Structure formats: C-alpha cells, structure tokens
Amino acid sequence: MAIERTLAIVKPDAVGRGLTAEILSRIHAAKFQIVAIKSLRLTKTEAEGFYAVHRERPFFGELTDFMSSGKAVVVVLEAEGAISKWRDTMGATDPAKAAPGTIRKELGTSIQYNCTHGSDAPATAAFEIGYFFAGLDLV
Fold first, then answer.
1. N or C: which end of the chain has fewer CB within 10 A?
2. What positions carry a catalytic annotation?
3. CB 27 within 8 A of CB 75
C-alpha cells in the first residue's frame, strides 16, 4: 500500500469539550505521522468554501454554521493508506453506528457533533490539504 496524506480536522465540538489531546493521542497510537498542524477558527465564508461540494444539500447551512462556531485543529496525516486508515480510526459518521473503539463511537455525541473530519478520496485530500496548508508547510 502506498504512503498517502489525508486531512483530519478536530471539529469545534471536540475542541470545545477539551478532546484535542485525546484525539491527537489516538492519531499517534494509530502510527500516523503528523506532517502539519494548526489551530484556527473558520469564518462562515471559509467554511462555505471548504464544504462547497455540499452547497446544494439541505444540511449545508447548519454544517457551515457549526464549523465556524469555534476553534478547530486541522492536521495533515501521513501513513500507508492514510485515507482509509484515518476513516477507519474515526469510525462511521453517526457515532451510534460507529464501530467500538473508534473516535466517533467513544467521543462523538451525534451525526453533527462527531468530533472529526477526514478526507474521503485522494482528490478530496489534495483539495482539503491545499485549502489549509501552503506547499512549504508540508515539506
């Protein structure tokens, strides 16, 4: 399996509940390399740009309101098969349906407040990483 990079976000619900260190600990335990990391607060416009692919979906406004409601931590992860590995580590979007031991199962409280985001494909990862990090940040 090839070395890949993926974007992970510790969402505002998790940051607000003081779960950033716990989630970063799980990232280290899963043997990801952290290539870049920063804390930020998205504006509504920045959140809309990041989630533009969902613009026509009924949850778009609620999602972008939530993602701009507080601080988040964005992280570039690297590992063999990083995209699927991170998605497995997070668990299903709905914490009630997530596998035992996953971040979302143990720390998430609802579909909206599920603590983390992860890229779903190589093209998505490339866009998402570039949205937050310049090339020099990723050396």
1. C
2. 117
3. yes
